Amino acid sequence: MEMKILAPLALLCSLLATPSYAFETSGHDLFSQLEDYYIEKGMTDKELLNAGMAYGYISAIFDSHRENFTIPADVKPTRLVATVYKFLIDNPNLRYKKANILVLQAISESFPLEEKETKKDG
Question: How many domains does the chain have?
Fold first, then answer.
């Protein structure tokens, strides 16, 4: 009998629960993770996790907006990470902004979308 009451109650609770994202990554957060990305030896588990999170974050932002950039075929993901890291080093005053905006800005400044030339009918 208890199961018959608990199951619908659990279902109701799960339906009422809305997804909440308690955090948004800032430029400061991403910069800190990228500093761990560039540690060469003896990374702790936390530093390794931070490095992976930074790499994955930048890759995900790039993948979801790749049509907005013209990236040469020989450019590896590590170059995109380096591009974002350099941008954050050069622009510490912007790190308070959301990281996704900064990633897009860094990549678009380095790899702007090239306009396709239209042929004129003559």
Answer: 1
Q: What tokens appear for 54 in the block? A: 């930074």
What is the Cβ-side half-sphere exposure of residue 72, based on CA atoms within 13 angstroms? 4
In a domain, 42, yes or no: yes
Cβ-contact 34, 81 below 8 angstroms? yes
- Residue 20 placed within a domain: no
- pLDDT given at position 120: 53
Residue 1 lies in a domain: no
Take residue 34 and report the two structure tokens written for it: 């990228």
Verdict on whether the full-model pTM lies above 0.70: yes
Residues 4, 38: Cα–Cα separation, whole Å: 55
pLDDT tens digits, 42-79: 989 999 999 999 999 999 999 999 888 888 889 999 99
Closest C-alpha among 89, 82, 26, 96 to residue 111? 82
CATH of the domain at 91: 1.10.890
Question: How does residue 4 score in pLDDT terms, banded at 50, 70 and 90?
Answer: low
